[in-house]
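hi! just following up on the protien thing from before. the input was this:
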Amino acid sequence: MGSIYGIIRQVMGAMRIKIAIFLVCCIVPFAAFARREGTPIFYQNSFAAWQQMPNQHGQNVFVGSQPNRQVVGQNVQTFHMPRQVDPWQSGGMTMNGISMPPDLNPYNLRLSATYSRRYADFQFKTGVNSILDWSNMVFNEIGFRAERDFQLRDFNMFAFGEYSRGTMSHGGLSMDYDLEPFDHNFPTFGIFTISVGQQTGTIQNFRVGLGARHIWDVSGWKLSPSIGYQVFRHDLQMFDHIYPNPAVYIPLMNQHGDYIFGDLNGNYFSVPPGMAVPDGFFQICMSPEDLRLAASDLSTWAPILDSNGNLITVEYNPAFGNSPWGVGPGECVVIGGDGMIQVRGTTHIYNTAWSGLFLGLEIEKQMTFVDRLRFYAQVSLPHYRAEGIWPNRTDWQQNPSFLDEGSNGSLHYQLEMEYIHRLSDRLELSLRASTEYFHVGQIPGDLYVAGYNFFITDEFRNIIIDDNGLPLMGFQPPFTEKISEALTYATWQSFSLHLGVRYAF
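and the predicted 3d structure came back as:
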């Protein structure tokens, strides 16, 4: 019987050992992922952390479970020293139970400097279906940020301000294309052109804000909401544009080289080159395969209509010689289609500012003793304001030529992911990637029209001729014209890589 009981005790002992091993294996993985960061109260006490705390028997408590002793069978000894913690290093704990320092505490002022490489695109479409595009831009950007922590009642608050400026280094091209009619009700009326060229520009970003530090903790991820105000500017230019000049349309002229213009009442006039025409008059163009000349014997402002009110045209006559296009009989007439034309210098300037209040949310987690991850999201409904300067337009004023302003359909968001490495108690190094998007919908604007000469007409809209046979001219001073749909949309999007350092005071 004794032997049977002995066997039973051995079996039960082996089962208890196996059960204990099984339970340990189940618990260890969960113990490796702490649900909340934090350290025992003993190690958060800066005074007690420097002491050897005696137990109830007056003996010192050491880190570890065994006293100093020689290892059996080896000529070595194990040593267990009292745990000492720097009072400024009493922070959280990683998933593996490593006691963590706080975020550069007790220093509450931090200064940062960052170098960024930004890749961006910007496009806007006007109310007359003209699209301008700055694509594949690359900016070198330098930024600075100041941040200070303070207490407000029971909340840890922080205030920050930052400014950055960048210059376009290279990349991409600018494009101006009008591939749609001004009015879709008249699809055949309009100017269909496209041009491409070089681009340059600068960007500026200014932000100030106020937030609450780590007011939520979700499984060790610390959440910090913020609110602030941002102004983002990008001043862009197009220059040295190339116009392919495909010669789809050519102007109608008479045998003297005068251009033919019409008005809204169905009247047509021959106009000498260089002479200004009234507002509302449009130029008559014909395709190369249907080339004809207006039948007028003299360069005059007299109407050139038949008895039925139709414009009088005739076939090209070899007796006209090489006039008015400078080519002879049987030669191909190409006006504006004899190869590309490059316009040197600045052709377009568009200075844009997005501004308004924003809401931000920062999420960060201490991963190891010296590393942490940070995520940031920001949204806003910005106000849009842009000034356009078209130096080659003589019918618009300069600086500015037009102004677009509004916030209809506006949206902005910014997303960031950052890795931060702690070099010392005061110094940190960061690597960050971010993306940013701005958009605004249909908004009004102001068009600044330059002064111009015009023909004086009678009540029947006929041009009045003076005693010398010349039309009477008037002058319209510069004025501002309100455009209800000046801009159809504008969109900015960019991706950036940032390398920065942060120092605490």
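The helical segments are 2-31, 41-44.
The two ends are 79 Å apart (CA to CA).
cheers
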